[in-house]
Amino acid sequence: MSSSEGTPGMLHGDQQPPAKRARLSAPIADQGRHREIGLMRWRSEKDAASFVGSASGIHFIRSVYSAVEAEKSRAASPVQSPDRNLVPGEDDQLPGEHAEKPQGLWQSHEITLTTRGRNDIVSFDDLLVWSDSYFENWHKAYPFLHAPSVLESFRRVATRPLSDVCKVDPLDLAIMRSIFSISLADRRQSGDKGVNRPWPAELVFQDFDSAIESIQSTLAAATTIKALQAVISVQLFLVSMLRHNAASRLGGLAVRMAFQIGLHRCPVRYNSFTADDIQLRKRVFFCVYCIDRHLCQSLGLPLTIRDDDVDLCLPNEEKHTSVAGITIATDDRLALLSLLARHAEIRGLIMELCNKSISHRQTDVEATTSIVAKMRKWQNDLETFLEETSHSPAACASQHRTMLTVLRHECTISLNRPLLALPKDTSDYKAALQSCISAARSIIALLYDDLKGATAMHSSSNGYSILTTHALLWPSFTWATWQSAFIILYAAVEGELPKDSAMKLADHSGDTLKHIALRGGVWPTACAAAISDLRKHLDRPRSSLRPRDHKPLPSMAAAAADISTEQANRLTALAGVAETNQSRTWQHNSTANAYGQRRRFATIPMHHMQTWTMTQTGAYPQT
User: Fold this and answer.
1) What is the DSSP letter of 562?
2) In the predicted structure, residue 248 carries a pLDDT above the cut 60
3) Structural domain contains residue 351
4) How does DSSP assign 84-106, residue by residue?
5) C-alpha 443 chain-centroid distance
6) Neighbour tally for 210: CB within 10 Å
């Protein structure tokens, strides 16, 4: 998969991989120290082990807890935040998750059951209204469904009693229930939008188990595009509800199904596909690809799809010549998917660089240079796209602008956070921390301002309620807010950020997570509780918040050793992509020359490190 310059990940048929430079190896004694590492956990049950990888940020989160506890060692009470060994979305770790009877998803006022013997019928217009949020928010970003086919399924449902909905094709029913379930969950954050009556229970999943059971037939049946679409639909519903473990398992099924029907090969090179087939196959594969990369990063798991196994051109960036003489038309609605796919590729490259098994982490110049180049080109293309669509809400909805901007800052954190495992007196650590602070502030400010700009808040019986037309629905917002708040609080503990500023940003993070928590599920609430608890420990006299001794972050395992010099240099080169939230200008870092003098990687342009700054802009829609 690639943009116009071509990438080593998704190669085109006539390209050859570049010659590899020699890998620079560090001494064995230096290869394990001060790195981000994952965490193996055990529960009381026999053989109940689970793993969360370093890409999830678990190493840094545990380090923040350790840093705060060290700073508060004289305090009467320890930090009482939720389990520091978990990351948002780990549904396998939730209490009661293995109970015999699953809990229902909906409250009594949200759904209504059809009375036995009644022939209740819903109109086609009702179905359109109930699915509006899905098509407006999710389908534009992940257009794996063929909308005309979905609308035809709606028409079939509208012609029969709800009691007969189970007679609809099982795959169609799974897709429709996913759509309506996502839209109903969206409604909790965005308000009624004129839909005041309860939704028919027959049109939504009653619990997560029933969602997964709805596509079990795909395991035994022959793989088809429609079957894969049903699996992705359910997977996306689970992702939207932060059920990442279950979604990841379904993702393994989706990836294998995609491979079995050849979606990872560019259909333009074959004469059996029509222009519509070509577009749909690309849309389906890149949705699988983007969702998979999101889950791999969130849980810190190895990549399921390797870029060098894929030969598929991005939408609107076809490099192959059609053997059937088909003209592939450009569809501007797919620009968002193309940007997301390129971001997913960069996300995977960062994980391969920074979070792979310690014995296989690369230390060569070319890998570093390639990631920096892809990152900056994507940022530049994103900036151009946002500028071109700034006056066209139809081309780029505000929620997608926000989403893309947050994803951009997420990359900065993912690139720089591993360097926070280095000793604190190194320039690498200091530069990375400032980059993370800048990106974290941008994320918190962007989401909070977006929320306040579209939300009217008022008290309710549950303590927090909203009425809004623009909700923060994107699933990575919980992770991004959580990581950003911890970075800000850690910076305050280390004396790198004023306490008052850190506490204000922490409060804004809590407000954002409370809004996301309206959707349901425990993770936003748990993250908000963790931030609130750490904030309380930060709220003490300024004199106690002194800069701490220059010691490395507490190790997460006794076996962790120092990072190699080459690894530190390479990651610091990546740290050049630092962001703030001021204006669309380039700023030169006056201290970068000092870094450049120490670099063994002379080919990395570290002199005059450039800091990318931009205002709150973000994404755009797709259909």
Assistant:
1) B
2) yes
3) no
4) TT--TT-GGGSTTTT-SSPPPSS
5) 13
6) 15
Instruction: Residue 167: give the domain boundaries.
Output: 114-330
**Given this model, what pLDDT does residue 213 score?**
96
> Which distant-in-sequence residues (6+ apart) come within 8 Å of 8 by Cβ?
17, 18, 307, 308, 370
pLDDT over 80 (residue 27) = no
User: SS in 3 state form for 443-455?
Assistant: HHHHHHHHHHHHE
- DSSP code of residue 49: E
Closest listed residue to residue 56, CA positions, set 233, 245, 238:
245
What pairing do the DSSP bridges indicate for beta strands 111-112 and 578-580?
unpaired
Cα 362 to chain center, whole Å? 24
Q: Structure pTM?
A: 0.78
The C-alpha torsion from 447 through 449 and 455 to 461, rounded to 10°, is 70
Can you name the residues that pair with 585 across neighbouring β-strands? 613
Which of 294, 315, 330 delimits the end of a domain? 330
Give the domain-ending residue among 290, 315, 330: 330
Per-residue pLDDT of 91-144, as tens digits, reads 766 665 555 566 789 998 899 887 554 668 889 999 999 999 999 999 999 999
**Above 50 in pLDDT, residue 238?**
yes
Handedness of CA 531, 450, 297, 348 (dihedral sign): negative
Considering the domain boundaries, does residue 343 fall inside one?
A: no
Please identify which residue in the block is written with the tokens 């050859």: 16
Output 589-593 pairs: Cβ under 8 A, ≥24 positions apart. none
The count of structural domains within the chain is 2
Q: Which two tokens stand for residue 437?
A: 């602070």
Averaged pLDDT of the chain? 75
- Give the tokens for residue 417: 């956070």
User: What is the token pair recorded at 533?
Assistant: 């608890």
Do 275 and 234 sit in the same domain of this protein?
yes
Give the model confidence (pLDDT) of 75-91 as tens digits.
444 444 446 666 777 77
Torsion of CA 191, 196, 199, 204, to 10 degrees: -10
pLDDT per residue as tens digits for the range 329-388? 788 899 999 999 999 999 999 988 876 766 666 656 677 778 878 989 999 999 999 998
Is 13 within a domain? Answer: no
Residues 309 and 361 in one domain: no
Contact in structure between 495 and 477 (CB atoms under 8 Å): no
